[in-house]
Amino acid sequence: MSGMGAWLWQRLTALYLGLYILVLLLVLVFSGGADAAQWQGWMRQPLVLLATALFLGAWLWHAWIGLRDVVVDYIHPFAARLTVLIAVAAFLLTCGVWGIYILIQAASSWA
Predict the structure, then answer these.
(1) CA separation (Å) from 43 to 6, 14, 28, 30, 46?
(2) Residue 74 counted as an annotated binding residue
(3) DSSP secondary-structure letter at 22?
(4) Whole-model pTM above 0.85?
(5) CA-CA distance, 86 to 75, in Å (whole number)?
(6) Is 62 known to sit in a ligand binding site?
(7) How does pLDDT run across 64-99, given as a tens digit for each residue?
(8) Number of C-alpha atoms within 13 angstroms, CB side, residue 65?
(9) With left for phi above 0 and alpha for psi between -120 and 50, is residue 3 left, alpha or beta?
(10) Which domains, ranges and CATH numbers included, belong to the chain?
(11) CA-CA distances (angstroms) from residue 106 to 48, 67, 73, 79?
């Protein structure tokens, strides 16, 4: 993905990331000093879990597009560029797997 498609995805994911963080901050401000158990209960709601899963996906996609563009623009030797892109992809993949694991743990404790 490059050009206008990458530009559009970067903006769309940034919009979602910003909205999610804004809602999270509003909940934090107006929660009246919720304790850990109340936060866990709120975060385990299906719609909140879905929004958080979408946040994770949007963050990973946003990070990949941005970092890939920086690497392609500023690292010119092919071998170095490929090495850095593989490292970035491995890091983001690890973050994604870890995030999915955390969401599955939260979802499995609905009982």
Answers:
(1) 31, 22, 12, 15, 8
(2) yes
(3) H
(4) yes
(5) 13
(6) yes
(7) 999 999 999 999 999 999 999 999 999 999 999 999
(8) 19
(9) left
(10) 4-108 (1.20.1300.10)
(11) 11, 30, 39, 41
